[in-house]
Write a structure and sequence with these properties.
By secondary structure, the protein is an alpha/beta fold. It has two domains: 241 residues, Response regulator (Rossmann fold); 152 residues, Rossmann fold (3-Layer(aba) Sandwich). 36% of the residues lie in helices and 16% in strands. The chain is built from 15 helices and 13 strands. The strands form three sheets. It has a five-stranded parallel sheet with strand order 2-1-3-4-5, with helices on both faces. A four-stranded parallel sheet has the order 7-6-8-9, with helices on both faces. Strands 10, 11, 12 and 13 form a four-stranded antiparallel sheet that branches. Helix 7 runs parallel beside helix 8. The two termini are 28 Å apart.
Length: 422
């Protein structure tokens, strides 16, 4: 899959579609008046806003299909009980791309050209998003809060219409490095990583963060998303002599690596699983007895953690998930993630001075201390002209019993390491 997005990029160069729509006088149901007139109001009216997303609802990354269920539950709740966002009911369209960039290109084009969505919200995955961000920016369609931590989606000033949301992979890697500096300053690290931009980004960030320390990477093994398993890579890593294992894998392969680690009796490293695979839905099939002591990092509240039992937002989330997404377990963290990022979109659109595509673009690039109640205390959204990363703080956690327990304090990587990309 490495560098496999070149074909998709070529497909996009051939695409030509709609220019910006006008204001209220165009009969578009638009909301652009005064200084907003002439800006794009496709997909938004005084009473509605249409969003489109691509997710891996099938294929090797299908575990992420839980995220849009949490998003939809939030929007259904807001539509039914809050009269939408500023009086606009949200229509949320999700398309399955199977985590295949060429398929993502097709689905994104359909959403923009046929469905005429106002914005692309939460397109999933690094390679799929890489395959579509040129197109989104050419068409001047906001591609907001993409579901990937790739540092490109915040550090690239040539794509102002695209922005991430979760802490980027470089920031996440910095958190793991900081934890090792404090607790295992002479760590020998073995790494499993996905062979694409996502894996490169997190691994590259980790290497940069341990420069000048006595922490050493002693072996690296990669895998492709088309591989049936990572058992062979795990056997090789087990012979490395490493006392830390950094698991940079998406859910299917992270779960396989966790299971393999449990079976290798003569290797007992500190196991770090990256955040995108830290959900209990990934750990549970391995058996909770086999994942005790595994560590990761997070930035939003875990619905399984009893410390949030009386938290107002958690109580609201669980109540509304049962009401608007019956049959879906509110304790699945991916559902809580979806709820959190939908809340973030709500607040960003509300903050837009112009309820236009341009207004949303400007709002997502000018977030100042915006609170999202599902985030951990002390973590807020912040962006600026030279900082396209809404979240760059995380807190370490360790798996104990049947859930994660937070450890230490929130680590603000902006403060500890400086802005990513600068």
């Amino acid at each position: 899959m490495r560098r496999g997005t070149a074909v998709s990029a070529a497909l996009l160069l051939a695409v030509t579609t709609a220019a910006a729509c006008g204001g209220r006088d165009d009969g578009d149901g638009g909301t652009a008046t005064g200084e907003c007139k002439g800006q794009q109001t496709t997909g938004i009216t005084d009473t509605s806003v249409k969003l489109g997303a691509t997710y891996a609802l099938s294929g090797p990354a299908s575990a992420y299909g839980a995220i849009p269920k949490g998003i939809k539950a939030y929007f259904d709740y807001v539509n039914a009980e809050k009269n939408g966002i500023d009086g606009r009911k949200v229509e949320y369209l999700v398309r399955d791309d199977g985590y295949q960039p060429p398929k993502t290109v097709e689905e994104v084009r359909r959403l923009v050209e046929q469905e005429q969505v106002f914005a692309l919200f939460q397109t999933l995955g690094t390679p799929p998003t890489m395959a579509t961000w040129d197109y989104a920016n050419q068409q001047k369609v906001p591609q907001i809060f993409v579901a990937t931590g790739a540092s490109a989606f915040g550090a690239d000033d040539k794509h102002p219409w695209t922005i991430g949301w979760q802490p980027n992979y470089v920031s996440e890697a910095r958190v793991y490095a900081q934890n090792l500096k404090q607790n295992k300053p002479k760590a020998k690290v073995a790494v499993l990583f996905q062979n694409d931009d996502y894996g490169d980004d997190l691994l590259g960030g980790f290497k940069k963060a341990i420069e000048g320390t006595e922490i050493k990477i002693v072996q690296e093994e990669s895998y492709e998303v088309t591989d049936p398993s990572v058992e062979a890579q795990m056997r090789d890593l087990a012979g490395s002599g490493a006392d830390v294992f950094l698991n940079i894998a998406t859910p299917k392969f992270a779960s396989q690596a966790l299971a393999a680690d449990a079976k290798i009796t003569d290797w007992n490293p500190m196991h770090i699983v990256n955040n995108v695979s830290a959900s209990v839905t990934v750990l549970k099939p391995v058996g909770f007895d086999n994942v005790q002591g595994v560590v990761s990092a997070t930035y939003y509240k875990d619905p399984n953690d009893p410390q949030w039992a009386d938290d107002a937002e958690m109580k609201l989330y669980k109540e509304k998930m049962k009401q608007y997404a019956p049959g879906n377990d509110p304790n699945v963290p991916y559902h809580a993630f979806g709820w959190a990022v939908a809340t973030a979109f709500h607040k960003t659109l509300e903050a837009a001075e112009c309820k236009t595509r341009e207004g949303l673009r400007d709002a997502m690039r000018n977030l100042k201390g915006v609170e999202v109640p599902m985030l951990l205390p002390g973590i807020t959204m912040n962006t600026g002209p030279d900082d396209g990363f809404p979240l760059e703080s995380m807190q370490m956690m360790e798996f104990k019993g049947e859930r994660w327990e937070l450890t230490g304090e929130v680590i603000d990587t902006r403060k500890e390491f400086g802005p990513v990309g600068h």
